[in-house]
């Protein structure tokens, strides 16, 4: 028996273009003092990163795929297929890397190997939508002699920041300051520069603030104004907006929903003109009769996917507003009580209302992958027993 443990040292979230590093440890758990202790042998082990794509048959019409691949593995099969048995199609993969051949482990002995690979910068982000899914995995394959291959899959999340590809190799890289007292591998230095560059690009894109004012009007007149200071955000930020209900039409209630719009490209739609899919990530609702001003704050979950577009699907973010306005004047919305000693104002039992909605597109970008790792559903450590 051999225990295989794979650990992602920095966490399970990465930016496309970053270096993924995983330490894989092979251990013979039996103690040397055990009567049944004996050396264990592995013929080989290999590792590879791949992105698996799965589409809903009811929503997406994909071209026929090559059905010549088999998921059934023979007893002595030595071909390493990382996505064997997985649903969907493998749309992206890195070259496989051999970790070792003919490994012998004595009782209580363990050996560790480091796997490093740069994530393709032109791949899609990790996404689990209603129509399609993009899932990234690092798969480690191990095999004993004359035994089937055992696969250890390590799922992780990939964020895509557009613009990194053009700035991946800065012109002043050769004259960048460095610490002569630290010996740092070139790959890690490049990866650190890429993360710093991504942070700078995100900060520059999301820190710009300018006043955006929108008039809220129905078919009967003006309800008020809406104010927001920016329309570009990172996941993990809060979307903050304010209302000023100074119009002629009284607003009884409003709600604001933070939503994503998942649409399939026209050539891949199962039915022509099929509706898009909406998902609500946060919502604020408030009764606002005789309220002059109000505000809301909606957090963008760190676990959500920033906006992106591929040849099959497009994901966009928006604020969806719904307003309930009175069909009468503000003065008739309240009824004065008949008590002689005190004045009591009570709401009417019935009132005619009008409703209307409005959508405001916003842009949502990735964030620092280390921050997103704190709320990731994936574990940094995965194991299997062979």
Topology, element by element:
Elements (H helix, E strand, L loop, with lengths): L2 E6 L4 E3 L3 E9 L12 E16 L33 E5 L3 E9 L4 E9 L8 E2 L3 E12 L6 E10 L26 H21 L5 E7 L2 E8 L3 E3 L3 E7 L6 E14 L12 E11 L5 E7 L8 E2 L3 E14 L7 E3 L8 E3 L5 E13 L3 H5 L7 E5 L1
Parallel strand pairs: 2-10, 13-22
Antiparallel strand pairs: 1-3, 1-23, 3-7, 4-5, 4-6, 4-9, 8-9, 9-10, 11-12, 12-14, 14-17, 15-16, 15-19, 18-19, 19-22, 20-21
GO molecular function: guanyl-nucleotide exchange factor activity; small GTPase binding
InterPro entries: Rgp1
Pfam families: Rgp1
Task: Describe the protein in words.
This is RGP1 homolog, RAB6A GEF complex partner 1. Pfam families: Rgp1. GO terms for molecular function: guanyl-nucleotide exchange factor activity; small GTPase binding. About 5% of the residues have low confidence. A hairpin with a 3-residue loop joins strand 18 and strand 19. The protein is elongated, with a radius of gyration of 28 Å. With 386 residues, the protein is mainly beta. Helices cover 7% and strands 46% of the residues. The strands form five sheets. Strands 2, 4, 5, 6, 8, 9 and 10 form a seven-stranded mixed sheet that branches. Strands 13, 15, 16, 18, 19 and 22 form a six-stranded mixed sheet that branches. The protein has a four-stranded antiparallel sheet with strand order 7-3-1-23. It has two domains: 209 residues, Immunoglobulin-like (Sandwich), CATH 2.60.40; 154 residues, Immunoglobulin-like (Sandwich).
